[in-house]
Amino acid sequence: MLRMRRIRNTTHVIGLMLAFVCAGPGVASAEEVYDLLFKTGTLDKLSRVSVLKYERDVAFQNDAELGERSSGTVQLSFGPDDMAELKFLQGEKYRKIGQFPSTVGNPMIMYFVETVIRDMAGTAGGSPFYIRNRVKASLLEDVPVVETTVTYQGQELPARSVTLYPFKDDPNRARMRGFGDLALTITMSDKIPGWYYSLTAKTGDDDVKPVYLSSVTLDKLETGQ
Fold it and tell me: In this predicted model, what pLDDT tens digit does every residue of 102-130 receive, in sequence order?
């Protein structure tokens, strides 16, 4: 498994998430898309004894075992000093991912991006710094914001979806072992606890067995006692 260590540059992550406020729907400018993806205050209304649980499903075309080891539950809970704490769980085993000020927003998007970067670097090779810079650059492009619906807890809820293609114009696409077509799709709704309903990375034309697929989807909100 490509181990997800704690996100080291917490100050940088917080700076990114604090940089903007949420934007409205429609075809959006680069700043509006960034605002939407890094919306602040998304955890403010949650009880501090509640827990958000996301299911992470990962598949590698040429390494089924690695996909299984990379799949599990990502848990967001609240700790001392109003910190949002992330853990990765597989059965009875767990490991800490990191902690972030909950007032900034939901850190799941940064966890998602970092795991995709590490997965791609480990599978296709290349510098994770180069990959990260291309992903960051894709956050600063004008892209459509699609109005959609999602099903959560048996309810159809309005949502918005954004898809980014970090390597669509990259001169090194041919050497990326199928990752040149990587698409990152983030689906969000203010009706969903924690804002993010799903975060999906996919590359490859085969829907049955793509080159790489990583999805993080909200499973449930546990409200505690």
Answer: 988 999 999 999 999 999 999 888 899 99
The pTM for the full model equals 0.84
Q: What's the rounded Cα separation, in Å, for the pair 80 and 2?
A: 29
Backbone angles phi and psi of 26, in degrees to 5? 105, -175
CA dist., res. 122 & res. 179, Å (int): 12
- With CA atoms as reference, report the closest residue to 184 among 206, 205, 162: 162
Residue 32 neighbours by CB under 8 Å, 6+ apart: 23, 24, 145
Greatest Cα pair distance in the chain: 54
Residue 1's pLDDT band, with cuts at 50, 70 and 90, is very low
pLDDT band per the 50, 70, 90 thresholds, residue 210: confident
Identify the bridge partners of residue 68 per DSSP, sorted by sequence position. Answer: none
Buried b (16+ CB within 10 A) or exposed e, 51-80: bbebebebbbbeeeebbeebbbebbbbbee
Could you tell me which residues come within 8 angstroms of residue 96 by beta carbon, excluding any fewer than 6 positions away? Answer: 6, 85, 86, 87
Q: What secondary structure letter does DSSP report for 126?
A: S
Quote the CA–CA distance of 197 and 201 in Å, as a whole number: 14
- Tally of CB atoms within 10 A around 152: 19
- Domain boundaries, given as residue ranges, for the chain: 10-219
- How many CB atoms are closer than 10 A to CB 125? 11
